[in-house]
Write a structure and sequence with these properties.
The chain is of the alpha/beta class. Helix content is about 40%, strand content about 15%.
Length: about 270
């Protein structure tokens, strides 16, 4: 018996990185997982990873998975994600809003188009997916929503400010702060319905394919957390009794109680 037997989960940004790890972990615990991303076939993105590869891997290990291709910056695609997932796997009781993108650089120099992509993918789309998913969860009396956040959403203490505060992530941090507020606010609105809403961020660096290409943070200047930490922490939050563990903003290694060096974004240096 797995901890998620009989469950149906939607995980966005599941073709690689953190989303892939969470989808694979949920499937290993018995969930049927709908994987959402834009890259469907191998070799069609400049980054490694595709929905087909992740689906094939889950099925090869005896799990249940379906690909739900979608451009999460396209509202028409977003509107059909839940309906396509449910047509393939059944009623969705778990939603993980993981998909994200960051264009590093000074906030005042960020092109409007890049800001629009970030805000649409990490603010508008998660908000809409929560609206689409929560209604059915409330009707059935149980559900789990998890927004993947970041310590970049927290406020650097200063002046003087730590170096990471000026690493080019202001817009990204804004979007993740919105994800945090969505989690805490929606948790309050849904309290008593059996639906849990939480946010989960990394404690340190996760060397996803995207991070490896664009991030100024490397293993030389930032502690690296184990690849399994986010998936294990997500599993912990999404298998807690429905509606009881809710409104929390957590970070992987701290939630799991695993020792971890402070590094940049230490909670003690933020508020």
């Amino acid at each position: 018996m797995g901890a998620m037997d009989g469950r149906v989960a939607v995980v966005t940004g599941a073709s690689r990185g953190i989303g892939q790890h969470i989808a694979e972990r949920f499937a290993a615990e018995g969930a049927a997982v709908a994987l959402v991303a834009r890259t469907v076939e191998p070799g069609t993105s400049r980054l490694p990873g595709s929905l087909q590869e992740v689906v094939d891997g889950i099925r090869a290990r005896g799990g249940v998975a379906a690909a739900v291709p979608a451009d999460l910056t396209a509202p028409d695609d977003v509107e059909t994600v839940l309906s396509r997932a449910e047509a393939a796997l059944g009623p969705v009781d778990t939603l993980v809003n993981n998909a994200g993108v960051n264009f590093y650089g000074p906030a005042l120099d960020l092109p409007a188009k890049r800001y629009e992509i970030m805000a649409r993918m990490m603010v508008q789309t998660p908000f809409r997916l929560c609206q689409l998913a929560a209604a059915g969860m409330v009707t059935r009396g149980r559900g789990w929503i998890l927004n993947i956040t970041s310590k970049q959403a927290r406020h650097p203490s200063g002046p003087p400010y730590p170096d990471w505060a000026a690493d080019g992530s202001v817009a990204y941090g804004m979007c993740k702060a919105a994800a945090d507020r969505l989690a805490t606010g929606l948790a309050a609105e849904l309290h008593g319905t059996g639906v849990s809403v939480n946010a989960l961020g990394t404690s340190g660096l996760v060397r996803t394919p995207g991070v490896a290409v664009v991030s100024p943070h490397t293993p030389d200047n930032t502690p690296v957390e184990p690849d399994d930490a986010m998936a294990e922490a997500a599993l912990l939050l999404c298998t807690a009794p429905a509606g009881q563990v809710t409104g929390r903003i957590e970070y992987s290694m701290e939630l799991l109680g695993r020792p971890f060096p402070l590094g940049p974004w230490a909670l003690s240096a933020t508020h």
